[in-house]
Amino acid sequence: MVTKSLALGRKIDEGQTEALVAHRAGRLSKCKTAPAVAPSDAQSLQQLQKDVLEAVATGCALPDVVDLVCIRAEAMSPGVICSVLRADLEANCLYPLAGPSLPAAIREATSCVPIAPGVGSCGTAAFRGEAVEVTNIATDPLWAAFKDRFWPHGVRACWSTPIKGRSEQVLGTFAFYYGEPRGPDALDRRIVEACVHLCAIAIDHDNAQSRILRLAYRDQQTNLPNRTAFQQYASALIEQIGATGQTLAVHYIDLDDFKGVNDTLGHVVGDQLLSAVAQRLRTVCQGNEYIARLGGDEFAVLQFPVATPDEIDHLARKLLSCFEPLFDIDERTISIAASIGIAWAQTDSNNFTDLLRRADVALYRAKSTGRATYCLFNEDMGKRLAARREIEKDLRAAIRKGLIAPHFQPIVDLMTGKTVGFEALARWIAPARGFVPPSLFVPIAEEIGVIGPLGNLILRQACQAAASWPSDIKVAVNLSSLQLSRQDFVEDIERALAESGLAPERLELEITETVPLIENAAMREMLCDLKSRGIGIALDDFGTGYSSLSYLRSFPFDRLKIDLSFVREIQEHEQTMAIIRAVLDLARSLNVRTTAEGIESERQRVWLQAQGCTEGQGYLFDRPMPASKVVEYLINEDALFGAGTHALRSA
User: Fold this and answer.
1) What are the C-alpha distances in Å from 540 to residues 67, 411, 466, 486?
2) For 507-527, how does the pLDDT look when each residue is reduced to its tens digit (9 = 90+)?
3) In what helix (H) or strand (E) does residue 300 lie, and over which residues does it extend?
């Protein structure tokens, strides 16, 4: 076997050949590197397109995908070596992305190629935005400063083509190196045209996923870590406390009367003020402190390690001092202060949620004593926690007595406007408290470990209600990881279906990325068992976690639900809209239905429908309703769209 090198007149010895093949086989184990028989050029290009799109859809790493493109291109055009460089437009440079056959010296020579005129074939092609053909590097002025580094390795000619994204922005370059003075022939041009297109798809997709990842852990407005990142970082540190004896403190910061800024000066100015606050906090915290924006006008600083209360006081005063100078925002001078609640994690405290709760109690105390100050949690403040314990007790009793019931929110086909199903959402109306919002009791249920019984209660009630609906209407029920971790969970589903008489095909179970599906083979097998029975499985809040693509690879979901945090920003943030488009494109390629949550305006609905989103859910269509109102809702819809829409029967 002979493998090409850029010293195109030499052969790589057998040992090098085996090492290269083994390297490719290891990295591209998920990507098909070559067909079993030699096909025609057209068939090869069609197969390459199929394999690349499959690799992108299943989450193959970008370098592996582009390596696959290069290897296949080299196989179709013997005597050619491929190289792909990726553009960093902020640095105005090209960096190596793929080039599996390139020797180390050439990779080093292309480690940072300026995007500028007269910089070889690739730098010039990226600068001009058009292909550059150099048929002889020895005589072409574009290569005058570079030929001596490439000539010893057999490079005699180079043809580079810019890779462009949807917006015609240059994403990188695709280059053919030749071992003799020549230009591309007709076959080369067909190969490169196809490869450039596939590389653009792969890089665009990778960019979109990178943006999704940043959204999952980074606050867009301030570019600080968000609540999720803060919690993970703090929880990891808390686990170390018992072993090391070190302690940490959480400074919970809330701006005083930020609402007044938004109300009087507008949200644009308010957002700019938040960014300015974040920058001042960065200026103050230049040691081991970890800063995050938790949401709204709330920030947090994690101080670690902490030896004495004096160190906590010192940082708190520094944090307050950064609000003393006025803020210059959009030619306005703004004065704003902040209050800080602090909780100190002692060696016997290893619960981040409880720590943040204590900081929140201390923050409330700071605000009640005049604001623009800080307060360290003490046991006297624990009385406020007693009220929380009462809620926990009432919640346990409500679950035990079946007093929490599902309300049902319509899921609508965006093309026809007709209801195709309902999502069951838990609602609690407590005798002594009245309506308790799910945003309050669901997190408490998760924290105290009763989310499993609560979920099972809602599942049984939802199936019972849906059994009385028309046969074309489905019901979706949320699952928690605690429910899935139970060995008898499948039996719970079977029991709910048997008791209600609901057909399995009419039930859909929704999970989020908090369910450890990737790591837990038993959970995957359980869901596969349910799916084989006809039960649908949906991935809820898609795009908000760091492992969304890995989730899609781990299980064949029937539906992706786009989180309402993305839907809210439609027509406001182009970045968010690009991410939604990327998710919808991915869903189409996998033949998976999509539902956008939180649609509240006709403008959002029209835009989502135009992008190919199949279903929608939100207040635009209707609010969650008790089971007793669902049939009436469907009757009214039947009258609107015409008799027989849902084959309604008397209940």
Assistant:
1) 33, 14, 20, 20
2) 999 988 777 666 678 888 888
3) strand 298-306
